[in-house]
């Protein structure tokens, strides 16, 4: 990567834009892989803590801190990232597959998780199917957020309203 970044060769702007697009896909796919590894790590750590007879109230503690050290972010940010990863991994598999394929950015995937966080797993999965069918991979972040928000509202207007009040 460093070698490629330092090359200053003469290429057309069209070639540069194509490279940027390909790198964006790679970045999204790498983010998806990092999310998968984070979820698997959290599962492994929780299983190890259970096997070590850690008190049930303490299961999971320290996992975000370890992820934070690995990612060079705070424990708070690592916990937020793990929450997004879990949401995609367990409840939004179609959106996760779009991320793996580099068809959406981590930012858009995170928006989908945020806009559907108030839904139960089954309803979240139904919304996932609807937003991917609606072409979320062709949308920018604002349109993707609006699409996810609309389908989340249609799926469960009551919890949507409560979730919005709790955010205020």
Question: Which key terms come to mind for this protein?
Answer:
single chain; 168 residues; mainly alpha; 9 helices; 76% helix
Detailed description of the structure:
The chain is an all-alpha fold. It is 76% helix and 0% strand. It contains nine helices and no strands. Helix 7 crosses helix 8 (141-155). It is flat, with a radius of gyration of 19 Å. The N and C termini lie far apart (43 Å). The relative contact order is 0.10.
Q: What is the element string, with H for helices and E for strands?
A: HHHHHHHHH
The DSSP helix count reads 9
Structural class: mainly alpha
The main pleated sheet reads as: none
Global Rg: 19 Å
Please give the share of residues in helix.
Answer: over 70%
Stretches where pLDDT falls below 50 for ≥5 residues?
none
Mean pLDDT: 93
Shape: flat
DSSP, total strands: 0
What is the distance, rounded to the nearest whole angstrom, between the alpha carbons of the first and last residues? 43 Å
Strand proportion, as a percent range, falls in under 5%
């Amino acid at each position: 990567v460093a070698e490629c970044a330092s090359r200053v060769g003469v290429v057309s702007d069209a070639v540069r834009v194509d490279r940027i697009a390909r790198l964006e896909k790679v970045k999204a796919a790498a983010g998806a892989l990092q999310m998968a590894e984070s979820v698997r790590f959290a599962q492994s750590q929780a299983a190890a803590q259970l096997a070590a007879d850690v008190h049930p109230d303490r299961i999971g503690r320290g996992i975000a801190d370890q992820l934070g050290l690995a990612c060079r972010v705070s424990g708070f940010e690592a916990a937020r990232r793990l929450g997004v990863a879990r949401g995609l991994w367990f409840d939004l598999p179609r959106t996760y597959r779009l991320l793996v394929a580099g068809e959406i950015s981590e930012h858009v995937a995170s928006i989908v998780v945020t806009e559907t966080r108030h839904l139960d797993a089954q309803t979240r999965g139904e919304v996932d199917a609807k937003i991917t069918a609606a072409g979320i991979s062709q949308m920018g972040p604002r349109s993707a957020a609006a699409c996810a928000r609309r389908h989340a509202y249609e799926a469960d207007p009551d919890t949507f309203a409560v979730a919005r009040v709790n955010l205020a």
